[in-house]
Every structure is written in C-alpha cells, then in structure tokens.
Amino acid sequence: MAVFSIIKKSQLEGAKRLDAEYYQPEYLTTQNILSHWPTKKLAEVCRVSDGNHMSISESFLDAGVRYLRGKDLNDFFVSDDDPIYIPNSEYEKLKRSYIFKNDVLVSIVGTVGMVSIVADDFDKLTGSCKIAILRGQKIDPWFLSGFLLSRYGQHQIQRKTAGAVQMGIILKDLSEIAIPILNGQEQSEIKETIQTSYKKQLESEGFYSQAENLLLEELRLKNFES
Predict the structure, then answer these.
(1) What is the pTM of this model?
(2) What do you get for the CA distance between the two ends of the chain, in Å?
(3) Do 38 and 180 touch, CB atoms closer than 8 A?
(4) Measuring CA to CA, which residue among 114, 105, 75 is closest to residue 194?
C-alpha cells in the first residue's frame, strides 16, 4: 500500500526542498513531536566542524596518529577493528580537524548518520572530511550523541541528506537540526545510562578475550605459529 503525505504549498520549506522524500510521513511526525518541546539548533549548543580536506592517502601508516574515517563510527563508540594512522608531521598540519575526548562524531558522506562519542583518551586524534566534529558548549555530549542516534535525531539527519552519486549532508544543514533542551538532571540520567552501556561493552570485550585465550591454551595453540 502506498504511503504518502499531503502538504499545503504554505508548508513547503522554500524552493530548495520540493522533493517528495523530504516530506515522508515519519519525518513530518518527528517534526511535529519536536515542535512540542523547547529546542535549539545544533549550532547553538555546540561547535560544528568537519575533518581533514587535504589528500593524505599516501601517508597512511600502521602506527602513528590515529586517523578516523566514516567506517570507524559503526558502534556508537570509536571502533578499533581496522585502524589507520598518519605521521605526526601530517597531523601538525590539520589543527582545524583535531578531535578530543567527549567530541561527538557523525558520518556525513556515504553512510550518513553513524554516530560515535570519543569516550577514551587519545594522545592525538584526527579524521577525514567525511566526519562532522561536534564539540558541546551548552549541552552534555553524551546526551547529544544519544539523541542524534535516536529516531528523532536520525530522522532529521536522513531528511536533510541529499545527493545523486554519493549521499551526504552539508555542515550548514546539519547545524540546523533541532535539539531538545532538557534540564541538567535529565541529561545526566541519559548520560549515566550510555556510560553504563559503554562499561558493559568493555567488560564483554575483556571476557571474550579471556575466553579466547583459555580456548587456545586448552588446545595448546596459544603460541602457535604457522
């Protein structure tokens, strides 16, 4: 069965957005729900920038300064599955793209809308222009990351995503996403829930490593070399 929305001409958000996808029912429902909350634009509660625009693909190393790509934001926290690094000399050229602990990262090109928070201490960290870097100024970053990953955050991000060959969202559009303003206590409760999840994740990874080592020891393969 077809799903559609009927929009009055007065409801069209300017000549820039006349595409039908922009007015999908679920997006309009999210917009209506958020209209009942006090909100601020993303750019009003945090600094919005992005990663490196310089070409440094020939500088990737197996060790050095960690360099993040969109694919590294696949599990709410920065993934260590397939890390790449750049020389410190290249890192020094990328000051506008430095990433710090508690920054919230959003993939803005390709697979748009992946969200991670930098929960760990990195000595030095930067990333590509496919990542938006959100530095909270008037909002708790843990709450912000949780909201952006929620249905209400994701609907807004996907709604503003566009492109023919490769999908993406520009920083200007990302900056206009509506963020609900909750009081400090409510933000703290959400933060504690997410941090508990992070601790459980680290514990599970530790248990998995212990189980793997025990199995290898039992099979006498602990120090096996082919």
Answers:
(1) 0.80
(2) 57
(3) yes
(4) 75
Alpha-carbon gap, residue 187 to 205, rounded angstroms: 27
Torsion, CA 33, CA 39, CA 45, CA 47, rounded to 10? 50
Exposure b/e, 201-212, CB count within 10 A at least 16 = b:
eeeeeeeeeeee
Three-state helix/strand/coil letters over 134-162: EEECCCCHHHHHHHHHCHHHHHHHHHCCE
- Condensed to tens digits (0 to 9), the pLDDT of residues 129-188 reads 999 999 988 899 999 999 999 999 999 999 999 887 789 999 999 999 999 998 888 888
Question: Amino acid letter at 129?
Answer: C
Map residue 76 onto helix, strand or coil.
Answer: strand
Is the pLDDT assigned to residue 206 strictly greater than 80? no
Q: What is the pLDDT of residue 5?
A: 52
Q: Are the CB atoms for 171 and 49 separated by under 8 Å?
A: yes
DSSP, residue by residue, 20-58:
GGGG-HHHHHHHHHHTTS-EEEHHHHEEEEE-B-S--GG
**Among candidates 155, 144, 214, which has minimal Cα distance to 186?**
144
